[in-house]
Amino acid sequence: MSAATEIAIRITVNGTVYEKTVEARLLLADFLRETLNLTGTHVGCEHGVCGACTVLMNGDSVRACLTFAAQADGAEIETVESLGTIERLHPLQEAFRAHHALQCGFCTPGMLITGIDLLKKYPLASDAEIRDGLSGNLCRCTGYEHIVRALRAAATARDNGEAGETG
Amino acid sequence: MKPPPFAYAAARSVEEAVAALATAGGEAKLLAGGQSLVPMLNFRLLRPAVLIDINRIPNLDHIREEAGGLVIGALTRHRQIETSARIAKHFPVLTAAMGHVAHLAIRNRGTLGGSLSHADPAAELPLMAQLLEAEIRIANGRGGRSVAARDFFRAALTTALADDEMVTEVVLPALPPGTGWGFEEMAERRGDFALAAAAVTVTVEDGFCRACRIAVIGDGNGATRARDAESAIAGGPKDAARIAAAAEAAAGAVMPSSDLHASAEFRRHLIRSLTARALDAAWRRAEEART
Ligand SMILES: Cc1cc2nc3c(=O)[nH]c(=O)nc-3n(C[C@H](O)[C@H](O)[C@H](O)COP(=O)(O)OP(=O)(O)OC[C@H]3O[C@@H](n4cnc5c(N)ncnc54)[C@H](O)[C@@H]3O)c2cc1C
Asked: Which atom of ligand 1 is nearest to B38's Cα?
C-alpha cells in the first residue's frame, strides 16, 4: 500500500463510465461539476449541513462534498441529471412541479435525490416523518411546506403501486 | 479546492492500516465515513499528510451475537445499526437513539468506529457506549487491546486512542433479563446534534430496581454516567419522588454553558425532564418485559 497525491479512478456517472486521474483531495462534488461539467449537483455549505450536493452512490444518498472522488473509484454515481428531462420529468420532479416545491431551485437537486432515497427506505406515513426525513436539506425559499406536499404525493403514488415513483 | 493537500491510500486490511499509521508517525488520519473528518478538512482545521481510507477493508461491518451480547464491526454504518433486527432485539435503546443521529445521507456513510473515535460531545453513539458499557477493541502493531467505554472517552474530541491505533470492533455485553430502557433527546431539528439527551436502563425484579444506568449528554465534555442519579433509583420501588430526585441528580452531573442554541439553565432543565421521562419509560418497559 502506498499513498499518492494523484489517483486513477474509474467511475460510472449516470450510466457513463469515466476514467480519470484526480488529485486525492478532489471532492466528488467538484469532480462532478468541474471535471465532468455536470453542474446539476449544487455546492452550498461544503461541510455536509445543507444537503444541496446530495447524490446517489451505489444507490444510497451521500454528500458529494464529504466524499473524495478517489473514494468513488469503482462506484456508480447518480446525479439529478439522471432523473428526467424537461420534456419528460421524473415522477418526483413532476410532483415538485405540480406542488410548487421549488422557487430559486438551488436546493432542488439535493431535495430530489434525498426524496428518492427516502421513498425507497421509509414509509413516510405522516408529514412529520417526511419533515424529519428532509431535516438534512436546507431550503431558504419555500418554507418547506410545498416540498412536504410533493413528497406526500410521491409517497402516496408509491403506495398505490404507480410505477416509477421511486426512480 | 477546499481540503488541504494530502496523500491518499486505501488499506485492504487492518494490519495494513495500522502499519501505515505507525509509519506516518502521527501525520496520518484514518478515513471512515468521512462525515466528521471531511468537514474538518474542508475547514482546514486539520492538515494530515496522509489519509488512510479504511472503507475497503473487508469484514469490518458485522453485527454478530457473542455471549448473549453483540459484537459490532467498526465500519458498520449508522444506517445498518438503525435497521438491524439483531440490534433491535438485543439493544432497542440503540435503535431508538439511531433515529436521532444526523440525516439519511450522513447515516448512509457514518460509521460506529468513526463516531466513537471522533467523540463529539453531543453524539449519540458515545452516549450509547457509556450506557451499554461497551468494550472497544483496538488494533495496533503491538498485539491490540480492549478498552472499556468509561476509560476510552477522555474529554470532548479526545479518546484513549494512540496515533497508531484503530478501533476494529465494539462489544456490547448482554443486559440482564427484566431490563427496560428509555431514550429521550431534544435537538433543534430532528438529526441535529443534541442540546440534551438522557438514556436509561432499569432492571426490575419483584417491583424493585436491581440495577439502573443513566447516561446523559448536556455539556461540552461529552456523554457521562450520572452515578448519583443511578443510586437514587437502584434498590427501590418505582415512585415519583425517587424519579424526581434522580432527575435532579442527573441535572447536577453536567456543567452546561450558554451559547446561541440554549442557555445553561435551559439545558439543565432539559436534562431534568428528559431523565425523568426516560426513567419512567424504562421502568414501564422493564415491567412489561417481566409479564
Ligand atoms: C450535517 C451532519 C450532522 C450530523 N449529526 C450528527 C448527530 O446528530 N449525531 C451524531 O452522533 N453524529 C452526527 N454527525 C456526525 C456523524 O455521525 C459522523 O459520521 C461520525 O461522527 C463520524 O463517523 P465517520 O465514520 O464519518 O468518521 P470519519 O469522519 O471518517 O472520522 C472521524 C474521526 O475518527 C477517526 N476514525 C474513523 N474511524 C476510525 C477507526 N475505526 N479507528 C480509529 N479512528 C477512526 C478519523 O481518523 C477521524 O479522526 C453529523 C455529521 C454531519 C455532517
From this structure: 29
Tell me what ipTM this predicted complex has.
0.96
pLDDT for residue A162? 83
Cα gap A139→A9, rounded to integer Å: 33
Q: Check whether residue B157 and residue B221 sit in a common domain.
A: no
Let me know whether B109 and B198 are in one domain: no
Claim to verify: residue B76 and residue B157 sit in the same structural domain: yes
Domain ranges of chain A: 3-82, 91-159
- Going from the Cα of B36 to the center of ligand 1, the distance in angstroms, rounded, reads 4
Q: Residue A120: closest CA among chain B residues belongs to which residue?
A: B104
Q: What is the DSSP string of A104-124?
A: S-SSHHHHHHHHHHHHHH---
Domain at B37, CATH number: 3.30.43.10
**Whole-structure pTM over 0.90, yes or no?**
yes
Single out the residue of A98, A110, A88, A111 nearest to residue A153, CA to CA.
A98
The residue whose grid cell reads 417526511 is A130
Query: Residues lining ligand 1, CB < 6 A?
Result: A 48-49; B 29-37, 39, 74, 78, 101-102, 106, 110-111, 113-115, 117-118, 120, 123-125, 161, 166-167, 191-193
Q: Are residues B133 and B228 in the same domain?
A: no
Long-range contacts of B63-66 (CB under 8 A, 24+ apart): B63/B87, B65/B90, B66/B171
Cβ pair B108:A62 closer than 8 A = yes
A122 CB-side CA count, 13 A: 25
The closest alpha carbon to A66, from B3, B81, B51, B113, belongs to B3
B2 within a domain of the structure (yes/no): no
* Chain A touched by B10 (CB under 8 Å): yes
Distance B186 CA to ligand 1 centre (A): 20
pLDDT in tens, A9-42: 999 999 999 999 999 999 999 999 999 999 999 9
For the A3-82 domain, the top CATH level (class) is: alpha beta
What fold is seen in the domain A91-159? DNA polymerase; domain 1 (1.10.150)
B202 and B134, same domain (yes or no): no
Query: B177-219, pLDDT tens digit by residue?
Result: 999 999 999 999 889 989 999 999 999 999 999 999 999 999 9
- Within a domain: residue B166? yes
pLDDT tens, residue by residue, B44-78: 999 999 999 999 999 999 999 999 999 999 999 99
The domain total for chain B is 3
